[in-house]
Each structure stands twice: as C-alpha cells, then as structure tokens.
Amino acid sequence: MSWKDLLIVAGEASGDLHGARLVTALRQRVPELSPFGFGGEALRQAGLAAVSEESIAVVGITEVLKVLPRARAIFRQILDAVDQRRPTTAVLVDFPEFNLRLAKALKERGVEVIYYISPQVWAWRRYRVRGIAKVVDLMLVLFPFEVEFYRRHHIDVRLVGHPLVDEVSVQKHLWDQAPEAEGAPRQGPYHIALLPGSRRSEVEKLLPLMLQSVAAMAEKVPLFVRLIQAPTIPDEALQEAVDLAQIPVRIVREERLQALADSHLALCASGTATLETGLVGTPMIVMYRLTRGSYWLARLLVRLPHFSLVNLVLGRGVVPELLQGAAHPQAVADRAVALLQDTAAVAEMRQGLHQLRGRLGRSGATERAAAAVAERLEQTREHRASGGVAG
Question: What gap in Å lies between CA 21 and CA 167, rounded to an integer?
C-alpha cells in the first residue's frame, strides 16, 4: 500500500472548493503527495487525478434516484482506482449519501478514512452515527457544536473551523452608506441579490420562485436585481428563466462577494451560500423547496428548530426561513418589502450576522485540516517504515 497516494472524493461544488484548498495546503506539507479520486474543476486544477469528470450532485432523497446508475458507475471507478493504487488513506469531503457508502467499502480494503466536513447527522437520521463510528477513523468538523456530538458516540473528532472565515473577507457594505444607515427614506432602488443554489436541481426549483418574487416586489418598490451565478451552474440554466422575468436582471459571474456587499437584501437558497451572505453582512431571506416525497420524509426525520446554517450556527432565528409551501412569490415579496422598509429590523439582523464570524472559528481552518491529514499520513509512513514495508 502507498501512503503517498491519497484518495480524495468530493461530489458537490462547496466540497470541491474546500477539497481543492485542502490539497493545495497538503502539498505544501507533503510534496510527495499524489492525490487521485473524484471531484470537480477546482480539485482537478489543484492536481487531482480524476477517475471521472461526471457530476452526480442533486438535492433531496427522491432526486438521488435519477442519478443512481451514474453514481454506481463512478463508485465502481473509484474502487477500481483504489484497488490499483492501494492508498493507505482517504479523505472524503461532505457528500454523505455517496461518501458514507464509499467509506464502508474503503474500510473493507484496509484504507484509513478521514472525513472532512461532517454529514449533518446531528440534524436528521441520527441513527447513522452508529455506522459512521464503524467506518470513519477521524472526523474533521467545521462547527463547535459538532465536537461533543461525535465524542458522545466515541468517534475521533477534531475541530478545524470553517474555511469561509478566510475565504470571505470583511466587505464595505451598502447598508453602511448614508443615508440609509441613519434611517432616512430611500431615493434610489433597492439592490437585491438572488442566490438560487449551486446545483442545477436547486436552481430549477428556486430561480423561478425568486424571479416571481422580485417581480411582485417591483410593484411596490424600485429594484435593481443581480443574479449571483454559482461556478457550477451553466449559463443556459439561468438565461431562459431570466429572459422570462418581468423585470431586468443582471447575471453576476465574477466578484460574487462584492455583489453581495452591494445588495440591500439577498434571497438565498439554504446551504453554504447563507454563510457567505451572512459573513458579508447582507440581510437575507432563506428559502427552500424539495419534492413532496423528500419534504415529507424530511419532516419525519429532522429534529431541528431551523433549517438554515446561519440560524443553526447562531443558535436562534436571526434570518427568516421560508420552506416548501411557505415559499411562494407573494409571501416572499411581502416579507422582503417589509424588511427593507424597516431600518430597525435591518440593523437588528445585521447585528446578529456580525456575530457569525466569531461563531465559525478563528482563521486558518484549511491549514488545520491539512495539518491533521498530514499528521495521519506521517504516522502511516512511520508505521510502515518501522514494519519494513515499502510504500
């Protein structure tokens, strides 16, 4: 077995970015590293030898059924590469429906499994933690509240913090400019940012809702609308919906954080984008829609007071959440207009969001994660050397 060959698997946009930064930091510590596996463009640019360039990221339990044949093929390709290269260690990044099954297959092959960015078993389907304890050797987590959860279940866990603390710098914000900060009436349009998600299935559900919402808002207040395009979403997935919109919409492909800072309000899909938006300090309304089957199953299994990461990290309902039937255009528009015209409510929300950076940990999360992986690789190398085994 080879300690230099490191398996990396990340199936979604955020995991691809975090995995790529992890590989870059690891190579500074372990120049001999030879990463291979499955990931997106960011990981491939960081040096990952990819077994496939396909995508299998979807939202919801029932949606997974549509990509099962492709997922099975990629699963087999990964294991074939593992059998050929025989790594001692794997780093699995988020993507739990796929990666937890892969972890079991890897353990059967004697591969040490490090899991980076915890599955949200603390939120729903908690029984899965028993299976995790059998197949994961080290869990690297982003949030402080995850540490005690895994320790209670006797899983080796290390808090590394959230990489977004470094990736999202403090921005000069539109709300901080006079006269709005002083409560004076607005003379120009409200700037609205739309963040419909980083997966195509998300965008298909949420972008039409967001566009209908801002159309309803425009009947009451003047607007300037930006659509923030995730790097994983192709132009054609956005352009048709934008062409049908009843108001002008500018698609933003670069300088995403600056576009957020230049917005009075964001309509945001639930996910990592809510943390990015919160770190920038932009007030937001979080919304989400699942298929009916996924939604009812989630209702049975989820035991949390909030579904947005921002509210979960802050421990209270700082930003509004509209889920499923509650997320319809008129409801979103009414909530958004009321918030925009209530400067005290805006100030209160932004004060809450200001606490987010501290809750996500100190700077250097990626470096701490890389140090943890490098430490395990070094232990493996020393162990193999002391046993007289080449690799």
Answer: 10
